[in-house]
Amino acid sequence: MTRVSRRAALLGAVGCVCGVAGCTDRSPRTAARSSATTPAVAVSPSPRASHRAGLPRTTPWRPTSAEVTPAAKLRAVRLVEAVGAWRPGESGTAAARSRVAALHLGPALVGQAGPLLPKADAAALQVIDAQYGGILTDSASVLVVCRQWTRSADRVRAGGTTVDVRLVRTASGWTVTSLHPARPGAAVSPVPSRVRGILSDPRIELPPAARADLRSGQVHDSVLAAMLRLARTYRMSVSVVRSGHPLDVFGTRRPSDHPRGRAFDVWRIDGHPVVDPGTSRTLIERFMRDAAAAGSYNVGGPLRPSGGATANQFFSDATHHDHVHIGFRT
Q1: pLDDT tens, residue by residue, 194-204
Q2: Are 85 and 58 in contact (CB under 8 A)?
Q3: What pTM value is reported for the model?
Q4: Cα distance between residue 160 and residue 80, in whole Å
Q5: How far is CA 188 from the centre of its chain?
């Protein structure tokens, strides 16, 4: 796999690491970025969307009571929704800066929006999921996974991205310090047969950035094989594969497996969100054990199964209370 060399500048944070090679990092490093299409998975966007002719009706994402720090997620999501959705006559950087300022956040963040702010007459945005890339006492990475539709003249295009939103906690609450949208790279041709199988599998739900990651040819075969194997037993909603994820395990300088194309995260299993306390712990544990059996050396989630091939094969922490991380060495 090709290492992602880009390092995004980020305000450092103080805290402890929760995970082995999972999804956590307080350093300035952030993974590759993106755009693509995915099957509809309604879980969020802007209330204004219903007034946009020709664009899908969307709904605002809201955290559940089970979130570790719901205020951090909500702050990140509202910013992404404000930047990535607009009515006719409200396109462009200046209008986006005004929307961000209305949230009492720095308008300069718009300059980091990248694919979240394409040229279009109007746009609608639906957040699929918001999961932690890392959560410490006073800093966080929230990965906002979204679909976006843009309209120019009479043409509507479907796309989307995943944004690694970095936040710090201040005396007045959580504030956003930087945005890092996914950029997975161009698709290879021809698309490998195993990738085609995953993209067409109705039991594997993939958001735009993840689909583009697979098409880029930068996802390791071990990940592809595990996805197909798990899909024989479960319906999986994938949140993040390679791009749009921190480069380092949050709070450390230890490289994450995600940007190297050696990991994927699942936020929903058989239609049940991992974060939902009503989701069967037995289902989650069985899924984690099956992920390990599929070759993962590092499986993290809201619980830590006993046993494992190695002492650290399973782990659990605050970051992974809302998804299952499945990582591979090669």
Answers
A1: 999 999 999 99
A2: yes
A3: 0.85
A4: 11
A5: 22
